[in-house]
Amino acid sequence: MADFRQKRRVQAGSLIITAFGDAVLPRGGKIWLGSLIRLLEPLDLNERLIRTSVFRLVKEEWLRTEPLGRRADYALTAAGRRRFAEAARHIYASRAPLWDRRWRLILVVGELAPKEREQVRNALLWQGFGVLGGECFVHPGAELSTVLDALLAEGLADALGALLPLFAADARSAASASDADLVARAWNLDALSGAYGHFVDRYQPVLDELQRDASLDLADQDAFLLRLLLIHDYRRMLLRDPELPEVLLPAQWPGQQARLLCKEIYKRLEAASSRHLDAMLCVADGSVPVEDGTLARRFSQDDPLA
């Protein structure tokens, strides 16, 4: 396991986002900077790099500072919590959501300044929308009211008047050729399939080792670091995945295999990694936040998306 994580190279800011969503949010959503540094240093992220990355996340309004004497906690902003809550619904779902056979569309029908247009585009792509012709964004299952709320949280209230959210007409039979054509135009499934394939190739040997040696004495720290890297890699793929219904996906689609692989490894690491967080994660006053069991429950069989 140590050999696995030593071969990894990660971007500090992106990894910190993963750490907040997976580890910090279920424990109150804030952490003392020194505690965060201690948690991430074993991944060869030095103190200066972590500080710089955290300051950048504050500037980007993911995090906010809560000073306490000479120390400071870093907490998720309201927008940051919303982003994580939406992402968590997909990351920790046991199965992909069912499809009601209706497409969600957001059309650009008004004038937008170039910078504002790019911000809208990026915000919708982040939520898994595909793009048709630059003026139409499409998704198979997004909750449109939630999407618009997300744009508001991103500071794009002025852009909403230029957007028209719509439902496409119901499809009463199996997916049609026009559905398949829409998918091919809106998303690059070859690239996404390749990413899932690489994920499976990387992590299947890890699961094989965990299954082969049931008595494997994995240190709590190693369990946490492996869990963090696992969710980090999986999250980055899901940001590009619209979670299309199975009927619209190519044969032998590797997405569900990757989902089940992630779930199985995560559950095997959960207890040991949680012990490490209980020992290492604290806030600026030195107290250890109590884990919220409702937020910590991951990959539940009863997930509403299933």
Q: Taking strands numbered 1, 2, ... along the chain, how are they ordered across the largest sheet?
A: 5-6-4-7
Estimate the mean pLDDT confidence: 85
Helical fraction: 40-55%
Output the helix-strand order.
HHEHHEEHEHEEHEHHHHH
Overall spatial form: globular
Could you tell me how far the N terminus lies from the C terminus, measured between alpha carbons in angstroms?
A: 31 Å
Strand content: 5-15%
Quantity of strands, as a count = 7
Largest sheet at a glance? 4 strands, antiparallel
Named CATH topology of the domain at 2-78: Arc Repressor Mutant, subunit A
By secondary-structure content and strand pairing, the structural class works out as: alpha+beta
CATH homologous superfamily label of the domain at 2-78: Winged helix-like DNA-binding domain superfamily/Winged helix DNA-binding domain
Radius of gyration, whole Å: 20 Å
Name of the CATH architecture of the domain at 2-78: Orthogonal Bundle
CATH class of the domain at 2-78 equals Mainly Alpha
Q: Can you tell me the residue ranges where pLDDT is under 50 for at least 5 consecutive residues?
A: 170-174, 302-306
Number of helices: 12
